[in-house]
Design the sequence.
């Protein structure tokens, strides 16, 4: 019999037992529920009605006594309270008439109604001229007759309540007995299954396991001999076939593997960058000669050692161990600000850039190891410094003549110098706008060069978020009003103070708001928000503009990158430095900046700032 058939049979038997238990349980639970509902509907409600009638009759009798003995010349009821309790009695009597469930209850209820009607008629026929014995001889006996009838019906329902409760208890005990019997049957069946199935499966599985263990130890000569016409017998044949293939594969490829390993080692050792290869347990597998010189170690001393142990006495290695322990990957092209290492190498100081490349399996679920690289970027660093210096010099030299040109255009428009015709005024206005745009570009270039050179002076202050918003929003109000944009500001309550350079962060916000106004159509909306998140504040600028294409979203923070400017006036276009500078300012403050966008629906720019520590 197939192993699958044995398992299916055991599952079917267990399922049938579960179904039987469920059916019996549901059957008796339904009976118990019906019995409980009967108790509640048939008797408990009647008890409530009768208690209310007894109480109402007692209150009515008190009002009659008060009218009879105290106010001799008035009616037997001296207030509207009598009528209220009469109504209560009749309401509960009507409900009781609609809830007759016990034998003899109907006759008693009918008699109760007759007695109550006689009781009310006697009260209504009372006059001041009635004899003195009217109440004790006529009314009082009727009251006691009503009270006794109510209590008789009450006792009838109480007895029924006890009887039905005993029936429910009997059903419950029957349920316990049947559930116990079925449970015992289920346990016996389960034990039989557990005793039978393991005997069929466990023994051959143990043999298979032992064989696989020996194969893992490269004992490929071990063969399984299971004479079973089922899945386990088929599996044993496949394992025997696999063992033979592995033996053949190992013999034919071991030399090829050794050659490939030597080739890879030769390539790593010949590279000009410092390279260290580690395995999944952070132990050094390979190191080239450049790394030996940079780290001040030898291959024989660190091969096979844990990088965390080496970092205890090697400060340069400590930087790599920190990156590995933080479970992230840092490369030269990552968004994290580049940190250059200054290392004295080959009798001169040179710059190196750290890279950590983690190697994963095909499914990227497990780490197979990592490659630690110290890349020599001295030439690039020197070129970058030359470029930054050139940009700073050119920008500084351009600012003076541009400022003079701006002042000259302003003087030309002064009527004290002379009148200009309309055409001349338009030309002057156009040239002023172009000069203004050039001054903005020069200012951005100078900012960028200061940041890259590390000479950017930061003036930190502890301020509330609202102060930064005020500094950024005020210069933008006229542009927002001109385009009739629905502008809202939302600041979450109780945001702690932040430590920031107000001018720099306000510059970031002005740049983001300016972009939002530029790309938002007339009548659109812009929302500026701030909210608290753990140990930082999240600031966002949301617009309803045309949005950014997904392929451009990752490029917008790069230098000199401009997305679709086809529909923008030349006077409003820049050189693509605003967002790059914004990113640098936010990074200096220890925050992050990013964007989310949906085409034709709008864009949201976010950036974070840490709270004042």
Sequence:
């Amino acid at each position: 019999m197939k192993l699958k058939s044995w398992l299916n049979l055991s599952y079917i038997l267990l399922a049938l037992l579960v179904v039987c238990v469920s059916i019996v349980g549901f059957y008796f639970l339904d009976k118990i529920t019906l019995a409980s509902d009967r108790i509640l509907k048939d008797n408990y409600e009647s008890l409530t009605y009768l208690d209310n009638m007894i109480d109402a009759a007692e209150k009515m009798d008190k009002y009659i006594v008060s009218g009879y003995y105290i106010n001799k010349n008035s009616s037997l009821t001296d207030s509207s309270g009598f009528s209220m309790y009469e109504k209560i009695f009749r309401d509960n009597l009507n409900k009781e008439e609609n809830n007759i469930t016990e034998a003899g209850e109907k006759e008693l209820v009918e008699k109760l109604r007759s007695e109550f009607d006689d009781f009310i008629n006697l009260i209504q026929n009372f006059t001041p001229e009635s004899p003195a014995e009217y109440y004790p001889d006529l009314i009082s006996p009727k009251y006691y007759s009503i009270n006794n009838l109510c209590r008789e019906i009450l006792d009838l329902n109480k007895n029924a309540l006890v009887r039905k409760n005993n029936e429910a208890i009997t059903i419950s005990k029957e349920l316990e007995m049947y559930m116990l019997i079925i449970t015992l049957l289920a346990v016996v069946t389960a034990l039989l299954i557990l005793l039978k199935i393991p005997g069929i499966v466990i023994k051959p599985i143990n043999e298979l396991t032992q064989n696989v263990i020996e194969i893992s130890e490269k004992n490929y000569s071990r063969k399984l001999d299971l004479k079973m016409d089922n899945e386990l017998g088929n599996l044993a044949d496949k394992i025997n076939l696999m063992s033979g293939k592995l033996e053949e594969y190992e013999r034919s490829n071991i030399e090829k593997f050794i050659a490939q390993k030597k080739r890879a080692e030769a390539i790593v050792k010949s590279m000009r960058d410092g390279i260290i290869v580690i395995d999944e347990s952070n132990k050094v597998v390979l190191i080239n000669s450049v790394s030996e010189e940079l780290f001040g170690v030898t291959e024989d001393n660190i091969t096979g050692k844990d990088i965390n142990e080496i970092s205890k006495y090697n400060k340069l290695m400590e930087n790599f161990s920190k990156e590995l322990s933080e479970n992230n990957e840092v490369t030269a092209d990552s968004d994290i600000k580049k940190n250059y290492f200054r290392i004295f190498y080959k009798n001169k100081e040179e710059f190196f850039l750290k890279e950590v490349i983690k190697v994963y399996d095909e499914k990227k679920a497990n780490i197979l190891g990592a490659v630690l690289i110290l890349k020599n970027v001295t030439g690039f660093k020197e070129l970058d410094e030359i470029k930054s210096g050139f940009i700073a010099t050119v920008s500084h030299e351009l600012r003076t003549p541009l400022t003079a040109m701006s002042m000259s255009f302003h003087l030309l428009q002064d009527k004290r110098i002379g009148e200009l015709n309309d055409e001349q005024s338009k030309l002057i206005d156009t040239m002023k706008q172009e000069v203004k745009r050039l001054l903005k570009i020069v200012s951005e270039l100078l900012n960028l060069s200061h940041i890259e050179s590390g000479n950017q002076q930061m003036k930190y202050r502890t301020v509330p978020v609202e102060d930064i918003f005020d500094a950024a929003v005020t210069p933008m109000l006229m542009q927002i009003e001109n385009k009739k944009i629905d502008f809202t500001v939302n600041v979450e309550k109780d945001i702690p103070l932040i430590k920031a350079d107000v001018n720099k962060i306000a510059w970031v916000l002005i740049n983001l708001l300016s972009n939002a106004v530029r790309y938002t159509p007339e009548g659109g909306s812009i929302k500026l928000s701030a909210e608290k998140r753990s140990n930082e504040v999240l600031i966002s600028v949301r617009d309803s503009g045309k949005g950014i294409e997904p392929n451009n979203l990752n490029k917008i923070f790069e230098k000199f990158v401009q997305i679709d400017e086809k529909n923008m006036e030349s006077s409003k276009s820049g050189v693509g430095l605003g967002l790059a500078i914004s990113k640098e300012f936010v990074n200096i403050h220890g925050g992050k900046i990013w964007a989310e966008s949906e085409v034709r629906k709008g864009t949201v720019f976010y950036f974070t700032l840490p709270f004042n520590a």
Q: What stands out?
A: Confidence is low (pLDDT under 50) at residues 329-337, 567-572.
